[in-house]
Amino acid sequence: GAVVSQHPSWVICKSGTSVKIECRSLDFQATTMFWYRQFPKQSLMLMATSNEGSKATYEQGVEKDKFLINHASLTLSTLTVTSAHPEDSSFYICSASRLQETQYFGPGTRLLVL
Amino acid sequence: AQSVTQLDSHVSVSEGTPVLLRCNYSSSYSPSLFWYVQHPNKGLQLLLKYTSAATLVKGINGFEAEFKKSETSFHLTKPSAHMSDAAEYFCVVSEGLTGGGNKLTFGTGTQLKVEL
User: Cβ contact (<8 Å) for A103 and B97?
Assistant: First the structure.
């Protein structure tokens, strides 16, 4: 149990375009989902926390107009990188938790902006 | 505020020898502590967690960690390393009881290399 999936696993896009990444909890209802960003050989940095049906809470320094997060259901959250630029290239990882239980992580999405 | 310090960025061991990955934490509250493992280009897998129960926590794949409040440490150990253990390991702290709805703070990671 406690499986979290992400789609796509890889995405390459042109600078200026928008990219949507999906995060799904496959076998449980996730009341809270988290989005992280990981640069090569670095740790994970929390970008935002989203509760189902509520607006996401962004960490300091994360542009909410650039990284749009939607948590429309208990099994799906999406992260949209708007007007992507090469500096947005990174590994994006989501996690999900039910009520106050342990966070379970997705496999990550690697974004490359050309 | 909470923070985690992983004392070694790289650890290299021979297959069959013990593994020790060191972690110290700082937290204003009684923390929950976790160890996650990340294989190349993969997501994170939970190895074990401490949530104020037994101080010696056993996890998957033969790993265990001991919570020592007096030393603010949560070191990860394994008696005998296997080639498949080679990966990046993250020590993580949460000020919530379970780390579920609460913010996780990650250490900078320790790259474990296992040699024949």
Answer: no
